């Protein structure tokens, strides 16, 4: 991971909840600068840190925020949506049968042809090779055991898992609000 002194392309802004924690780690809660300017004018956020870049109109000038915090706390306890991305995040972006991280798909533990549903409790991440090998069989019939029993993760669990996958580039003004083991690069 590289820590940038210059702002990242597009001037994104790190968005923190009212408790000064990122709304999400993976993907990192970043807003485009245009949305941040709107939120500042609508008094929905407090500016915590700025870039040196200035935007202006004929009658107004403002430094672009690099970090903002929401004025109202957004509860993070709602159940996470069942999406391919969240499923892969729950399973650590690895096949639950062989631990490979390439060509990931999702596999119905109880095949759909046998009444298996597309739910947190019946889907695991699988590489294409394992998914093809398992086919329309159950894991027992295919002599393949998933590393973990599939289950619905909490929002906090997905946030914690997201911390294992820091972005490749971070702006130095964001570091005080992110909790990864980061090596600073010159």
Notable features of this structure?
186 residues, alpha/beta, 4 helices, two-stranded parallel ribbon, four-stranded mixed sheet, 8 strands
- What share of residues is helical? 10-25%
**Estimated structural class:** alpha/beta
Quaternary structure annotation: single chain
The number of distinct helices, counting runs of at least 4 residues, comes to: 4
> Which regions contain 5 or more consecutive residues with pLDDT less than 50?
181-186
Largest sheet: 4 strands, mixed
SSE string, helix = H, strand = E? EEEHEEHEEHHE
**What is the CA-based Rg, rounded?**
21 Å
Which overall shape is indicated by the principal axes computed on the Cα atoms? elongated
Your description of this structure?
The protein has 186 residues and is of the alpha/beta class. Helix content is 17%, strand content 25%. It has four helices and eight strands, in the order βββαββαββααβ. The protein has helices spanning 33-41, 84-90, 128-134, 155-162; strands at residues 2-4, 13-16, 30-31, 45-57, 60-70, 104-108, 123-127, 169-171. The strands form three sheets. It has a four-stranded mixed β-sheet. A hairpin with a 2-residue loop joins strand 4 and strand 5 (60-70). The longest helix has 9 residues, at 33-41. The relative contact order is 0.21.
Task: Give a brief rundown of this model.
The chain is of the alpha/beta class and 186 residues long. Helix content is 17%, strand content 25%. It has helices spanning 33-41, 84-90, 128-134, 155-162, and strands spanning 2-4, 13-16, 30-31, 45-57, 60-70, 104-108, 123-127, 169-171.
